[in-house]
Amino acid sequence: MLIWILSYTGKFVKVDEEYKINDIGDRNMLIKETTSALEIATQLAADFATRAGDADKRGELPAEDIQALKDSKYLALTIPQEYGGFGLSMRETVAAHLELAQGSTSTALVASMTLHIFAHMRETRAWSAAHYERFCRAVVEEGAVFNSIASEPRLGSPSRGALFATTAVAEPDGSGWRINGHKNWATGGTHLTHLLVSLSLQDEEPAVILVPNHAPGVTWEATWRDALSLRASDSHDVYFKDVVVPPDHLVERRDSSLRKVPNGWFPMLASATYLGAAVAARNDIIKYALERVPTALGKPIATLPNIQRQIGELDIQLQAARAYLFATAADWRDGDNRAEMMPRITATKQFVMNMAIDSAERALRIAGGAGMSSALPFERYFRDSRGGLSHPPMGDAALEFVGRHAIEGLEAEYKSESHA
């Protein structure tokens, strides 16, 4: 058996299981084969693709996918090298994630949660040093899977601001926090190991508390299996009934100014996730066009100029989206230029999402009536590509933000010229 380990250089290395590795950064380890993170993501995608269709029909995230993510150390891509991670840049991470998402949009979304959380914290260090190191090592050494559990049925997305109905009250004897509440859209479901639960403390102060998944009082309800998109992402509801955690599980108090710093990684990895679905649709529709030989035609429909034109239109859109996504990611400087980059990241997310949605629909149209059947993957790509519409920054708020930035960028120059 062979094991994949990612080195500090951003390379994955394959070593025999019989060799004990005491230090993931030991450059003297016996290396049997070396390849890039991009290649590992491609290999994982090929593995995920063998299960993606059935997983979508069942509405269940495959345990094999999660185990493969753990075994490959993929979830440690954005964790700093000092804690055993790999500290990849946004450009490197986005490129790898675009490849991964072509195998399963649902699994890629689950993986993106751990990636963006640790990338953002790597830059802001909003957690205490002790929490940060402990959580980083949990991912690297234990294969921990994190997600931020914030949305609530009545609240909706917390991105627009509101008080959480989920509460944490200090135990009278000081032994910990007692948590009660209901959260939805908790992507990853029972496969998560660490739940970073956004809630209100007893004085109504917003905070984040770590809740180990499957702790006494944590229950899950499978509410997502027949959703429009991402049916295999296990984005289910979770309930907390008198869940007690130790005092040191209080991770964040929202009075921290760092907590208000916008996360540029989430929209970029979300964009890569949904663009991956569209790229997979592009690849599969080309394969379909090469294989589909109508009796009346006597040759593959890929030879028809009309089909070639439609695929050309689709491909141009995806090339533009990919180039825009990568260019924006390459200009991100570990958050040092965050204020400058957030309008551009918002614009990138809007553009990439729109191109992904349109491209997946074009693939469905090219397939014709056969594409409506779940026997082919195009209706799944069509549905999954639309999942990004619900992720912030989104809709009118995103467009207004980009537009306001554009206006402000030229406002001073315009006023000076008008008064000249």
Supply the number of helical segments.
Answer: 10
Strand percentage, roughly? 15-25%
CATH homology group of the largest domain: Butyryl-CoA Dehydrogenase, subunit A, domain 3
Q: What's the multimeric state?
A: single chain
pLDDT average, as an integer? Answer: 89
Please identify, by name, the CATH architecture of the largest domain.
Answer: Up-down Bundle
Helix content: 40-55%
Indicate the CATH topology of the largest domain. Butyryl-CoA Dehydrogenase, subunit A, domain 3
Shape: globular
Q: What are the secondary-structure elements, in order, as H or E?
A: EEEHHHHHEEEEEEEEHHHHH
Structural commentary:
The protein is α+β, with helices and mostly antiparallel strands. It has 3 domains: 2-144, Orthogonal Bundle (Butyryl-Coa Dehydrogenase, subunit A, domain 1), CATH 1.10.540.10; 149-255, Butyryl-CoA Dehydrogenase, subunit A, domain 2 (Beta Barrel); 262-418, Butyryl-CoA Dehydrogenase, subunit A, domain 3 (Up-down Bundle), CATH 1.20.140. It contains 10 helices and 11 strands. The strands form 2 sheets. Strands 4, 5, 6, 7, 8, 9, 10 and 11 form an 8-stranded mixed sheet that branches. A 3-stranded antiparallel sheet has the order 1-2-3. β7 (194-201) and β8 (206-212) form a beta hairpin. α7 (305-330) runs antiparallel to α8 (338-367) and α8 packs antiparallel against α9. It is globular and about 80 Å long.
